[in-house]
């Protein structure tokens, strides 16, 4: 059973990388634009929430498939995206 969790984690790494990368890009572009205009940084909540939803949906599907270890690993990219939602 442990190997199934490892394979599921490795298979989902590209999805996690794309979701976190998209959130990082959206937050970075918003912060850069705010810095250029002299405005305070407002996190792009719609984009970050969408990326969080993709990662959370993958975690829920893993949980239903009884891959508890892989589902627990999905909290790592979810926490990274949630950290981008905080106003700096």
How would you sum up this structure in a few lines?
This protein has four helices and no strands. The protein is mostly helical.
Secondary structure elements and pairings:
Blueprint lengths: L1 H36 L7 H20 L3 H6 L1 H10 L4
Structure description:
Helix content is 82%, strand content 0%. It has four helices and no strands. The chain has helices at residues 2-37, 45-64, 68-73, 75-84. The longest helix has 36 residues, at 2-37. It is elongated. The termini are far apart.
Order of helices and strands: HHHH
* Biggest sheet character: none
What general outline do the C-alpha atoms trace? elongated
**What is the residue-averaged pLDDT?**
91
Oligomeric grouping of the chains: single chain
Q: Percent range for helical residues?
A: over 70%
Strand content: under 5%
Number of helices: 4
Alpha-carbon Rg, integer: 15 Å
Distance between the termini: 41 Å
Count of distinct strands: 0
Summary tags:
4 helices, mainly alpha
């Amino acid at each position: 059973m442990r190997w199934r969790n490892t394979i599921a984690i490795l298979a989902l790494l590209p999805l996690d990388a794309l979701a976190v990368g998209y959130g990082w890009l959206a937050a970075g572009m918003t912060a850069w634009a705010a810095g250029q205009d002299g405005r305070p940084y407002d996190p792009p909540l719609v984009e970050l929430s969408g990326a969080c939803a993709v990662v959370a949906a993958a975690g829920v599907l893993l949980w239903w498939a009884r891959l508890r270890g892989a589902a627990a690993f999905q909290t790592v990219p979810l926490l990274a995206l949630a950290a981008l939602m905080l106003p700096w």
